[in-house]
Specification:
It is a single chain. The protein is of the alpha/beta class. Helices cover about 45% and strands about 20% of the residues. The longest helix is centred in the middle third of the chain and has 21 residues.
């Protein structure tokens, strides 16, 4: 994949937030075509205290921003689970992500899980398998990384990036 962006290209850092597992993807939109440049699942060590795990999340996001220089950072909004403690810990990680993005000057966009599902599958109650299947059909992926090795968190991040691009195409988000 050609890594040098054209001045009209958009580079999106898309994130499925978490402190235990953080899905990240970098997508380039160029001339109406989306390409996956990078995806990963950042896993923090459960043995570390929460503040160290948050520092790792921040460091990884900072590295991605420095490497890819995104125009936009798209994040999935938190779905308030039954476990309030988990929701609080993930929201702290989201705060770190927003902080790192804002430091870089990239604009941050938020998408609800239902918006992501509708954008990718056309159905707001799609399950993870349907989202994963559609992501593979909607974007050109690097063949060096086998789809079997991608984590759900990565697919979720890619889906968030595709949602951002679709929203931008429909002019439902401003730039």
């Amino acid at each position: 994949i050609n890594m040098s962006p054209d001045k009209n290209d958009e580079i999106v850092l898309a994130i499925d937030p978490g402190y235990d597992r953080l899905g990240v993807a970098v997508i380039r939109e160029s001339a109406g075509k989306s390409s996956l440049l990078f995806s990963d699942c950042v896993v923090t060590d459960k043995k570390n205290p929460h503040e160290k795990r948050l520092a790792i999340v921040g460091s990884e996001i900072s590295k991605l921003i420095k490497t890819w220089r995104p125009n936009a950072v798209a994040v999935e909004e938190l779905f308030f689970s039954k476990n309030q403690k988990t929701a609080l810990l993930v929201s702290q990680a989201l705060g770190v992500i927003i902080y790192e993005a804002s430091k870089s000057g990239a604009k941050v966009f938020y998408y609800k899980p239902i918006q992501v599902k509708i954008a990718v599958t056309g159905y707001g109650k799609s399950d993870k398998n349907h989202v994963t299947s559609m992501v593979g059909r909607l974007i050109e992926m690097d063949n060096k990384k086998s789809d079997k090795k991608r984590h759900d968190d990565e697919y979720d991040a890619i889906a968030v990036g595709l949602t951002h691009i679709a929203s931008r195409r429909r002019n439902t988000v401003g730039f």
